[in-house]
Design a protein that fits this description.
heterotrimer, A alpha+beta (359), B alpha/beta (339), C mainly alpha (539), A: 359 residues, 2 domains, eight-stranded antiparallel sheet, six-stranded mixed sheet, 25% helix, 34% strand, elongated, B: 339 residues, alpha/beta, D-Maltodextrin-Binding Protein, domain 2, 13 helices
Chain lengths: 359, 339, 539
């Protein structure tokens, strides 16, 4: 098992620059997510060697492969829409990368059938790509890539053209295959749910830059900046109007709330609240229980909001809230969810609030 | 893909304009009292038509509609197509080679012009006067004296190795001078025709589809010898400097091309057509021919322009005959195409 | 009301009306042209034709030269296709606009250009003789089989370049990358991935070039060496000099059958290529990777400049050359143009060119649109595949003769019909790639909003396809403006176009003025192509 490291990789175009430093630990899956056009595919192609970076290094298992030809990097890639060769049958596709090995006819056939069996496609050797279903194509593409026994596999939105149910199933196939063979993977997608589910770590990209790279849970609950929080949709970002000392605790005041910031002090005297936001997870808020709050004092942030709409989401209720003109969505238990039209005070444990900037 | 919607109205407007333009341009006036089919170079602005047609109209008051189906072959082909309901009254440009076909098709009717007796008997193509000759010339090899020092002196000389790739001919399948050259060789060699063409083959640079292209190649210096008319030398003398391009006279004699006009059988305006035939044998018409059609007038006593002194009148004329030519063409082509 | 149903069907489906209407435009003259075949029995006429040695010989020669020409066109065209598709460089628009040449420059002009340039006294030979002190012209290939192949190959290479270039530009990059990552060398990537994806377009281009060369006339006769014959030449001879209409029809029939076989191949290729065009995403061409690439591209550019632009430039030079007195002496200037403009009838010729061009282009674009809508519905019967392409396999001369037989007299209508029919497969090709794009859902949406089927077609499909209809229209216009075959075969009295004027000038020993007319025509049609490219975002 080898790790993959991208060290200050930069590629510039007149209207766009992609620059990134990322690490995929050996035997793990690094998911890269971001809106379309954020440069994630470019990043992947630089790793594969299909685009030459302007500067920086690609390091596979400690070996610098920046200058190496694509096929000598030990990297395989599964493409968007799978890119199966339409004029070759399944066996031909899978065997494409095996040519270098100069196998005998029988050995080759044996190898192909083993690979196909691994992806549950035994007996599909002589089908043409257009005769396969979306899921079958995906598995052929995987088998084709795995045939060359890469130590790193890159996935470029491999599931984007499939329907939701199939996507879920195939993504677990990919994880299963990865755990079994132990390759290191980079998985690029614009689908956040997919990225969180599949990634051991998750990198969020925007406008050519990596904004954050952490385990998905961390990215969810501790976004590094407003952009990440907004992209994740994990909770509201309320603009801070001013910071005040209350009872010796630094408190952020928003349009309709106050959030004590435990353990924080104003470091920079020139601190300006304009680009600062209070963030908490969307499920962290609950309706204000009057007596308990009085007792807890500074350990809760409070805000009032009107519930504009309550959407039933099965085991939870998603409510569209308006707090001092700021609109956001909160997720409640079915029991505690407010009804549409009610104005209520809410509280959030101070430990789950954080300050974000939108630099 | 970038799509700028063009409004439907805009598109329909263009369509409509085009169709209106089309229909209006199809409307033809048909108040003519004499319909003549003539070949293109006769009718062109450099040909005789712009001079002789208005003259005829002025003299007789007959309105002429001049139709140009193409070259002489197309004139006849169109007349044959329309045999059952003729549109044309008069065909101009039927030469000795086309005549047998015209007669076989029965598209011509006889008319002996008023002063027919002044014509030399050897110019009369048809004793029944279904065709009236109006001009003639003879075929000759034209020589570019700047590019070639020693010209050939006979048809036989043309086969010599020193003339390899030096001769431009026209294809007998598509052009009159081409056919004329085959007729010439057929008259000279008879049964030895195939053998002659086999020997001639290395000398031929190309056989062009028409006289115009072939002669164009010749004047741009591609080869120093070309089949054309003796009067071509006169053309050069008239517009350029005399002397460089000369018509070669061969002792075997030169085949004559005689062009004639004939009245269409069942013509709608027969009287007018007869008047035109008569007009063709007047001085007024004949004098125009040397400098427009570049052919000799058939009427004796017409003074030739000075430039015609550059065109030698061959001493020996071979009679013009179109019969048996198809077979000769086949023999010549087979000889050329044989490996 | 049951009576009304078929009528309504007609009313709402433009394809249902235009399909047969177009069929009539094509089939009526065709049937008329072939009718002499039945004079004295079709079978005996065919037997007679086959027993003529020239019959078999001409087909052998015609097929051989057309095949060799297509191969040369491919060899010259493919590097250009690569450059157009994959590289960004100055002058790209010019290279791309060369594709106007085979469609819009009359073959006679090409032939003249080749003589002026490659001829024994041509520019190239004179330059070489002067440079090396030779007394004999070193390049002697022009008047031989290789001359024919050379002229055809160079004349038609832009067809290959354009067809293959379009496919190459849209060849799926991902597949190539996949192959690279699977360890394929660049050569293997090309052979196993790129090549299969451009093969349909390549096949289509090759069959088209084959057809165009198969029907070529002037170039074959002029350069083919003495006495060669293609079926087209023999047809002409039989019809025009032997007045043997049945034999001519037999030639035409067999010629058309050969062409149909090629057409069938073309339609199969083109179908696949068109599907590829629709699916493809166009990726931006890149700059050159290294100096070797730049060098090879420059080498190719120089080759095109010397071998292809040279003859074209000779025509321009000739148009600016004024011969005076003796033919040896000349000066340069615009005298040929001024005398051309001053020529009586020049204005009328321009106007007629416009009228004829607009009419046939309108007809071609309308049928092209109706067909591409209609073909989506009717599916893929053999007839639906071949019928729209039929014009490619029938010489316009045959159609014009057919119309004359039907109408009794040549007319501008017949000319427009013939030119529309000849240009229409290309208009269709341009239009098809877009109506396919405007997918059925838009029409369904319009119908769900209360449009009739006709209304949906007029208000949704037509505006959506408008840019490519405009392209098809422009293409058809350019082709029809440059074409003189039909009007030479059946001149209409008093109706002269620029192309015809050009032929007349060339035919009356006024080569320089003819070249000036050719330059004007080429500039006008070339501009249309250029504009069309700009619209399509290709250049």
């Amino acid at each position: 098992m080898v790790s993959l490291e991208l060290r200050d990789l930069v590629k510039s175009w007149p209207d766009m620059t992609v620059s990134a430093s990322l690490v995929a630990e050996a035997g793990t899956i690094l998911a890269v997510a971001g809106p379309s056009g954020c440069g994630k595919s470019t990043l992947l192609r630089m790793v594969a060697g299909l685009i030459k970076p302007d500067s920086g290094n690609v390091i596979v298992g400690g070996r610098d492969v920046t200058a190496a030809e694509p096929h000598t990097r030990g990297i395989g890639m599964v493409f968007q829409d799978h890119a199966l060769f339409p004029h070759l049958d399944v066996a031909g596709n899978v065997a494409y990368g095996l040519r270098r090995l100069h196998l005998g006819r029988a050995d080759l056939a044996e190898r192909i059938s083993r690979l196909l069996a691994a992806v549950d496609l035994s007996g599909f050797e002589h089908r043409k790509p257009h005769e396969l279903s979306g899921g079958e194509r995906q598995r052929v593409a995987l088998a084709r890539t795995l045939a060359i026994e890469p130590s790193v596999v890159l996935f470029d939105e491999p599931l984007s053209s499939l329907d939701a149910a199939l996507r879920k199933r195939l993504r677990s196939d990919i994880v299963e295959e990865q755990r079994r063979l132990g390759f290191t993977a980079v998985y690029v997608t614009h689908d956040l749910e997919e990225a969180m589910a599949i990634g051991d770590s998750l990198a969020i990209m925007d406008s050519g830059r990596v904004l954050q790279c952490n385990p998905p849970r961390t990215v969810w609950s501790e976004p590094a900046c407003v952009k990440v929080a907004r992209f994740m949709g994990s909770g509201p970002c309320l603009p801070v109007l001013r910071l005040e000392e209350r009872l010796g605790v630094l408190t952020a005041c928003t349009a309709a709330g106050e959030f004590p910031l435990a353990g924080l002090a104003i470091q920079d005297p020139g601190f300006r609240p304009e680009n600062t936001y209070v963030f908490f997870e969307r499920s962290a808020a609950r309706p204000h229980a009057s007596d308990a709050a009085a007792a807890s004092g500074a350990s809760y942030g409070k805000f009032s909001a009107v519930c504009l709409r309550a959407d039933f989401a099965g085991d939870a209720v998603d409510c569209l809230m308006d707090s001092g003109g700021e609109l956001f969505t909160l997720r409640f238990d079915r029991e505690t969810a407010p009804a549409a039209g009610t104005i209520t005070s809410y509280e959030v444990p101070a430990g789950r609030c954080s300050l974000l900037t939108d630099s | 893909m970038h799509t700028r919607p063009v409004s439907t109205r805009e598109g329909l407007a263009v369509l409509f304009t085009a169709l209106v333009a089309l229909t209006t341009s199809c409307v033809q006036k048909n108040d003519a009292q004499l319909v003549i089919y003539a070949y293109d170079s006769f009718a062109s602005e450099w040909g005789p038509a712009p001079i002789v047609i208005p003259a005829f109209e002025k003299a007789t008051g007959i309105k002429v509609e001049l139709v140009v189906p193409g070259d002489a072959g197309q004139v006849l082909a169109r007349a044959i197509d329309e045999k059952k309901a003729p549109v044309a009254d008069l065909l101009i440009g039927i030469d000795g080679n086309l005549l047998p076909k015209a007669l076989a098709a029965g598209v011509l009717s006889a008319y002996k012009p008023k002063n027919s007796e002044v014509l030399q008997p050897n110019l009369v193509l048809d004793s029944e006067w279904r065709i009236t000759p109006y001009d003639w010339s003879s075929f000759a090899i034209i020589w570019d004296s700047e590019k070639l020092a020693n010209p050939p002196a006979s048809l036989e000389d043309l086969t010599k190795p020193e003339y390899a790739r030096k001769l431009i001919l026209m294809d007998p399948r598509t052009s009159t001078p081409g056919l004329g050259f085959v007729a010439w060789t057929a008259a000279e060699y008879g049964d030895g025709l195939a053998d002659y063409w086999k020997r001639l083959k290395p000398s031929i640079l190309t056989m062009s589809p028409g006289w115009d292209t072939g002669y164009g190649l010749f004047t741009s210096g591609e080869a120093p010898l070309v089949i054309s008319y003796t009067t071509s030398a006169a053309y050069h003398a008239e517009y350029e400097t005399a002397g460089r391009y000369r018509a070669l006279e061969f002792p075997e004699g030169h085949p004559v091309q005689i062009e004639g006009a004939g009245i269409v059988a069942k013509a709608r305006h027969r009287k007018a057509a007869e008047a035109f035939i008569d007009f063709m044998l007047t001085r007024e018409f004949q004098e125009v021919l040397p400098l427009t059609n570049w052919m000799y007038p058939v009427l004796p006593g017409i003074e030739l322009p000075a430039s015609y002194s550059a065109a030698p009148e061959p001493e020996r004329m071979l009679p013009a005959s179109g019969s048996g030519l198809d077979a000769a063409v086949k023999v010549a082509l087979d000889a050329l195409q044989a490996p | 009301m049951p009576m009304k149903a078929p009528l309504r069907r007609l009313g709402v489906r433009p394809g249902a009306v235009l399909f047969p209407a177009f069929g009539l435009l094509l089939l009526v003259p065709l049937a008329a042209a072939f009718s002499p075949l039945f004079d004295g029995g079709m079978f005996s006429n065919l037997v007679r034709a086959f027993s003529e040695p020239r019959f078999v010989r001409s087909f052998g020669y015609g097929i051989a030269q057309a095949a060799a020409s297509a191969v040369l066109a491919a060899l010259v065209g493919i590097p250009g296709a690569f450059l157009l598709a994959r590289r960004q460089f100055p002058g790209k628009k010019i290279l791309s606009a060369l594709s106007a040449v085979p469609f819009c420059v009359p073959p006679l002009i090409i032939a003249i250009g080749f003589v002026l340039y490659y001829g024994r006294q041509g520019f190239l030979n004179r330059a070489l003789m002067a440079a090396f002190g030779l007394t004999e012209p070193p390049l002697q290939f022009l008047y031989s089989f290789s001359g024919v192949v050379l002229a055809h190959g160079f004349y038609n290479f832009p067809v290959v370049m354009r067809f293959v270039g379009d496919a190459w530009a849209t060849a799926p990059r991902r597949h190539e990358d996949a192959a690279r990552l699977l360890g394929a060398s660049e050569r293997r990537v090309f052979l196993t991935v790129t090549l299969p994806s451009i093969l349909p377009a390549f096949g289509a281009a090759m069959s088209l070039v084959f057809l165009m060369c198969f029907y070529s006339f002037v170039i074959v006769l002029l350069f083919g060496g003495p006495g060669v014959g293609t079926p087209e030449v023999e047809l002409y001879r039989a019809a025009r000099f032997e007045f043997d209409r049945p034999l001519a029809s037999a030639f035409a029939l067999v010629e058309t059958v050969v062409a149909m076989l090629v057409l069938y191949a073309y339609s199969m290729f083109e179908r696949r290529a068109a599907a590829d065009r629709r699916e493809a995403e166009r990726s931006a061409p890149s700059g050159f990777r290294n100096s070797r690439g730049v060098f090879l591209a420059l080498l190719y550019g120089a080759f095109i400049l010397v071998c292809f632009i040279g003859p074209l430039a000779s025509i321009v030079v000739e148009s600016l050359t004024m011969r005076t007195a003796a033919r040896g002496a000349f000066t340069f200037g615009f005298g040929n143009y001024t005398s051309l403009f001053a020529r009586r009838g020049f204005g009328a010729a321009v106007l007629n060119t416009l009228v004829l061009g607009l009419s046939s282009a309108a007809l071609a674009a309308a049928t092209g649109f109706a067909f591409s809508v209609g073909m989506k519905r009717t599916g893929s019967s053999l007839m639906a595949k071949i019928l729209p392409l039929l014009p490619l396999g029938i010489s316009s001369v045959v159609l014009v003769y057919g119309w004359n037989a039907v109408l009794g007299t040549p007319s501008v209508f017949a000319l427009a019909a013939v030119q529309a029919v000849s240009a229409y497969p290309f208009a269709l090709r341009a239009i098809q790639s877009s109506v396919g794009l405007s997918d059925e859902r838009y029409v369904e949406a319009a119908r769900s909003l209360g449009s009739s089927r006709l209304g949906a077609t007029l208000r949704v499909r037509l505006p959506m396809a408008a840019p490519s209809i405009a392209s098809g229209f422009a293409l058809a216009f350019a082709m029809s403006a440059g074409d003189a075959n039909a009007i030479i075969a059946a001149p209409v009295s008093g109706f002269e176009t620029l192309a015809l004027l050009l032929y007349r000038l060339a035919g009356s020993y006024r080569l320089n003025e003819a070249c000036a007319a050719a330059v004007l025509l080429a500039v006008a049609t070339g501009f249309i192509f250029f504009w069309k490219d700009a619209r399509d975002g290709l250049a």
